[in-house]
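We modelled the chain as a single entity of 210 amino acids. Its sequence is:
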Amino acid sequence: MPALRGSLTARRYRTTGELPKDVRGRVVRGLRSHAFLPIDPDSDLERSVGWVCLRDSEDVDFSADKVFSGERVMLGLRIDVLKPPAGEVRRELGRRERERGKAFSRGEKTALKAEIVRKLRKRSFVRTRVLDVVWTPAQGGSKRGAGRLHFFSRTKAANEALVELFSKSFGLAIDPEGPAAWATDAGADKKKPDPTPELLFGFAGRRRDG
């Protein structure tokens, strides 16, 4: 749990939009509506993403006492993947072709591959990642400033999953925080600057090559 150990490998976001006065109730309802659900090996689902309690990745029985620490919301974003290794699928497909004595057609290979994947799913282990989320909601939206969120992963796929799930759960906008956002806050002009005379014509007294 990097959030509880003070790790510095977090990506920062800002959240905008108004929350009701009952912030705790709204947050808990959003978590319950998008709580993590395990993958059924008999289904075709390869990935499941949802919220869990920070201290227990199996706990989805959310309450304000479990997820709030002062004004902060402490969560786990759990991502499970159940997908047989591609190499194992290819080996099984090759074995079936050798037993048959000739190559399968494209259509036969597609159907057989799907059958092999379904079979191997029941023998495969689920790959689980639980990533820490620390969110300080802004009460009253822009009137009291944007909320702040720290997400303890820098991988692209995990951050995309966070943005999508967060928006669905709480109906708030979530944007990366960094130099571009800070410049906007400071009133920086969004237009591209004009090139300087030196860039266009070179420095006086110096010959331009080419």
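As a brief sanity check on the tokenised model: Strands lie at 11-16, 47-53, 68-69, 72-81, 127-136, 147-151, 173-176. Residues 140-144 have pLDDT under 50 and may be disordered.
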